[in-house]
Every structure is written in structure tokens, then in C-alpha cells.
Amino acid sequence: MGKLNILVVEDDALAREVMSENLAGHAVEFAGDKATAERKLKAGHYDICFMDLLLGENDDYSGLKLIPLAVSRNIYSVVMSSCDTEETIGRAYALGCKEFYVKGNEDHNIAAIIARYLRGDGGKEAQEVFSEVFITNDPETRSLVSEALKYAAMELPLMLLGPSGTGKTTLAQLLHGHSGRDGDFVSINCAAYTEDLLESELFGYKRGSFTGAHENRKGKLAQADKGTLFLDEIGAMSQNMQVKLLKAIEEKAFYPLGADKPEYSDFRVISATLEDVQKLLAEGKLRFDFFQRVHGMTIALKPLAQRKCDIFPLMQAFTKGKKRLAFEPEAREHLLAHNWPGNTRELKRFVELIAAGTQGSVTLDTVQRHITPCVAPEQTGAAAVTQEQYDYAVKHGLAAAADRFTAGIINRNLSENHGKKAATLTQLKISKCLLYSVLAKLKTTERK
Predict the structure, then answer these.
(1) CA–CA separation, 91 and 93 (whole Å)
(2) What radius of gyration do the chain's Cα atoms show?
(3) pTM for the complete prediction?
(4) For domain 305-370, which CATH number applies: 3.40.50.720, 3.30.2130.10, 1.10.3720.10, 1.10.8.60?
(5) Among 45, 39, 37, which Cα is nearest to 8's?
(6) Would you place residue 380 in the very low, low, confident or very high pLDDT band (cuts 50, 70, 90)?
(7) Per DSSP, what are the bridge partners of residue 431?
(8) Is 415 helix (H, G, I), strand (E, B) or coil?
(9) What is the DSSP letter of 252?
(10) Whether the Cβ atoms of residue 200 and residue 158 lie closer than 8 Å to each other
(11) 6 by DSSP, 3-state: which?
(12) Which CATH number is correct for 5-119, 1.10.150.170, 3.30.390.50, 3.40.50.2300, 2.40.50.100?
């Protein structure tokens, strides 16, 4: 966090002490009356000004008169006062203050204010975010991420939407990093577990609660205490599981499997899905009360095909500290013509493949060997399937077709990762249980 120049306008000695404790690490000056505050505002250079409105006995809200002066000096003005009538709040905002708080919760509010100042539009860290963390030159995407960062330090739950590979996990990690929360970022892919396994993963369990439970195990909720719980592919969660998790989110309390006493965890929820939320609600797959609890703000990320200005900046980021690549003009045109249905995940795999070769200057022929221009399948209410997949499902049943498709995806990913199981677990966001189950079935098939 950068060191800021801050002016605190406050006449009460105890209140000044509280402000000083919560602003430790910054360059802080104090003014105890209107005249001193005016003199400092005119002569000094401050990033933020915290101001009380009543400066002394029988004062007629003289702090309000300081707001226009601070605003004219381009100072981020924040009122912290015990006077919070609707009229007073309205006047303060009309005069140009950015935020208004009632005294009494400074330990939380001040941290949130500084976080928003540093990470807001034009803040000192804003450009670093888009050049180093969530890389994008797309104006709409930058605006969405900037808006989301304003809520990073709040308890408000966030829901991230967008196709696979658009950066939902990266954005969730970014929001956690800007939240000011001391705990860990804990992620779980809800689609990678059966209902029973998901419950034990989320809530944890006590020794002896079921066969194989040889020791106590903390669940994701406990691991995310004072941190962030990222629920990926939330649409895959059963309604029964949604009911249990809803209660835990609302009460910040839960029972591990086999426990007779509740455990507590102060976690903040960020969820994500690549599915159409309204369709999930209409089909009854997503409970309305659960949805209301986890989607305080919704951020929809665009696919790479709709922000092709990001293709080459992302390529530069993927090769940072490694072999750099140069693309001939025809090769660049070919890359821009491709619709990247796998989004940034597909782009990263392509860059790693090219960089592993002997060429540094990439020709059109090299690019064409690895990708061809294509049109992304039209998005409809159901995922596109091949005729062969459909015929197999009709003949053998949907469950068998789903198992076959899953095995095919896992087998291909393992091959592309040269058999590295850890990479497959990470990229496909699947459990070890599912991976080894599929591998066992593949071996059985091979023996036959």
C-alpha cells in the first residue's frame, strides 16, 4: 500500500488519537479548527482529507464549508461525523465529498476508504492492475474491473460471469488481494464433486463421521476464515447443498460432518459460473434465495473474441521472463482472425507451444500448423454437440455419453500436458477422485 499524505480535521483529542492509530504508516497532519484547516488545505498537498463537521462547541457545521476548498484542491474528501441527518448527508455530498461515515467504526471504514482511493479510477494502483495482474486494454472490461475493485474491501458478495477461460478466477484472486482481508483465498470447483463429497469439502468432517474419516479435517469454509471463499461453477451445486450453504453464509456458522457443535468462520463469498444465470433460475437449478445471497454485484466478462486488442498484450505477459516472440504481419493477421473459443486459456497454451520451438520469429506457416481461423459456435440455450455425440447418447444413455465425454477431455488434456496430472487437475478444475476414476476406467478399456 502506498504512503499517502492525509489531513484530519477533528477538534476532539480522543477522536484524533483513534484516527492516528488507524492511519499509521501514512503522513498525517491534524487541524483542530476551521481556520487551521483552511490554512493547511491552501498551503499543503494532500491525497485525502478526513473531516468532522462540528468543530468546537456551538459550532454551526463549519466543517461543511471546508469541503468545497478541499475539492477545489483535488483532495479526496471524506466526512466522519456523529451528525448524520438526511439533510446533513445530502449537503455534504452536494458540496463534493466522496464518502460520509458516522463515527464509531473507524478501524474498518478507514481501511476500506484508503483501499478504494488507491484502487479506484485513476488511483495509484489502477494502471498496474491492467498491465500486470488482469491484463486488458479493452475499455469496457477495464471499466467493469475498476467498478468491481471499488467493492473489493466491502462484505458485498460478488458473482462473476463469462465463458471458460475469460479470467474469472484471476479476477476473484485480484478482488481478494484488494479486499484487505487477512485470511486466505480458498477456491473450490463445485462441478468437480458429487453432492456428498462437496459437503465434506465445504464443511469438513470429524474423525469417525464416515468410513475412511480417520482424522478431523477442516473444510473450505473454515480455511477461508477472515478470507475469501471462491465458489466456481456454482450452477452445478444441488438445491439441497444450496440450502445448507445459504444458512452457513447468512450465519457464518456451520456444522462439520459428525460434529455436535457449530464452528464459525468470517468468510466473504465470490462465486462464478459460465452458465446463463437466468436460465438456471428458470429451470429451478439455482434457488432464488441462494442466488440473492451470493450475487450482491454481478460482473460479466467478455470472451477474447470480443476483446481482440488483448491478444498481443496477453502474449507478452505469458512470455515475460522467458523467450520473447515476434510475429510476421501475416501471422498477426491470422491470430486476430481466430476466434479463440478457449479464450485466454487457449491463447496461453498456444504461446507455450510456439515458445517451446526453435523459432523466435513466428511465420504464418508456423501459426497455421497450430490454429486455423474459425467461427465460435453460436451460443444457444444448450451446448453444441456433434452428431456422433448425440447418436451415442441416444444409444447408450446420457450418463454413459457424459462419462465418455469426460474421459475424452481428461485424456486429451493429460496428453497435451505430457502426462502431468497436477496440470490437468488445475486446468480442468477437477478432483483427484474423478481423475483417478477416469484413469482406472481407461486402463480397463485398454486391457479389453
Answers:
(1) 6
(2) 27
(3) 0.64
(4) 1.10.8.60
(5) 37
(6) very low
(7) none
(8) helix
(9) S
(10) no
(11) strand
(12) 3.40.50.2300
